[in-house]
Give the backbone structure.
Amino acid sequence: METYTVPKMPARRIHEGSRPVFVLTVFVIWAVLTPCRPSQGADLEYGAYLASECTTCHRADGETEGIPAIVGWDEQHFIDALKAYLGKTRDNPTMRTIAKRLTDEDMQALAAYFRSLAD
Amino acid sequence: MKTLISRRNILKTAGAGAAVAALPVNLARAAKPKVVVIGGGPGGATAAHYIAKDSKGAIDVTLVEPSKIYTTCFFSNWYIGGFRNFESITHSYNRLADMGISIVHEYATGIDPDGKTVTLSDGVKLPYDRLILAPGIDFKFDEIEGYGPDSTEIMPHAYKAGPQTVLLHDQLHAMKDGGLFIMVAPPNPYRCPPGPYERVSMVAHYLKNNKPKSKILVLDPKGKFSKMGLFQEAWARYYDGMVEWLPGEMLAGGVKSVHTASMTVKTPDEEFKGDVINVIPPQVAGRIARDTGLTDASGWCPIEPATMESKLAPGIHLVGDSTIAGDMPKSGFSANSQAKACAMAIRHELTASRAFPPRFANTCWSLVAPSDAVKVGASYKATDEKIEKVDGFISSTGETGTLRAQNAEEAVGWYSGITADMFG
């Protein structure tokens, strides 16, 4: 994940301990209520942020009309498909441009997020 | 304030409806931060959608848009060419309303940046904690002599989609075979750089199949344009001899005046008479942005690249065509992309949600003939100075028909995707 600070708005302020009670409470609720998320440990919130770049074209509801649906895929299959744009097997320039700036961690977060949308 | 929000969320998440009802409701409601969005196009609708969706009720979102339906500029050329019907490019705000967004069908007549209120045409004042403006473009009617707001009924611009699009379509259909269609193209910068030239392709497609003796004349103040080689290849290949494009250097700078009664347009040296005349005037940021002092000397709005916040008025964000967006073109795709960065920054500011470095993107598909589309696209990042291009691509001349057909199919998929992303 890139290290980054939004000007005037310290990024990821929530993790800096300014509101420990809030953070702890949210974590407890999350842990209790979401026991069966895909890819335990995957950062779904980060995945959701990355996914907003995808949903301009790939519909978040999984409907498809001319551009493939990417909701509910097996996560490894999803990652393999993205990586194929970095080699010679898939050549769509739009997807190549997007895939080029995704790290392995980004791809895992995206795969987990789009998998979770099918739940 | 934030403690209350946290409690409300926790209780809601836990499904403790009765406990929520027992909260001091008025106090809780008063504590909710308010975002007002002005303009319901690709920028505004997307911003409202994403703030409502991702804040999960923690932020009150109001979308101010005078029209009850929205016709997309993108794909309006496809309608003119006969590739889409008008209904298919027209959308309601019903699903955004179902998500809990207040949709207010009034004009925003004024903004008080100090008092943080928006005044509507019915006199109501809307308070806000953060304001998003997505006003799009206005036309500079004073730059072409004789072309005022009334002239658009005779020489349509069809560059804000809706009744103008239908008018141009109907004029084209009523034109005699052997007629001359004139387009007066706009100077930079303007909305949708390939848009005028996709339109030329769509008009040519219609004429080739219905009025093949007709001609198209493009009078352009510019010397080059977006995807120029690709469009010119297509015009020669599909519409040989039908399209004539004249650059500004051959027109002593371009069209300086029009006369609607005689259906003529004039450059400093020449006069042209057309049967249908499409004037796409020079452009500037939408009125409310100018009236609020959010534009600089260029007529467009300077913004902080990472948050889309105005450089001239803190607390007010701008997205879409009205902004100076660095390397990004003015397009519906760009506006949609900027709106998500803006929504994330505002949620972070108001509810301390996580913020990440925005990743902007744009792709523009242009249909040049049936099952033949070309595309240009890029990824962008925010630097301290501007929204900067990271990487990009453009279709090549001489590509296979299979690839071009895939592009056309992809464009249809994108339309489905972005309109779902905008309107829910």
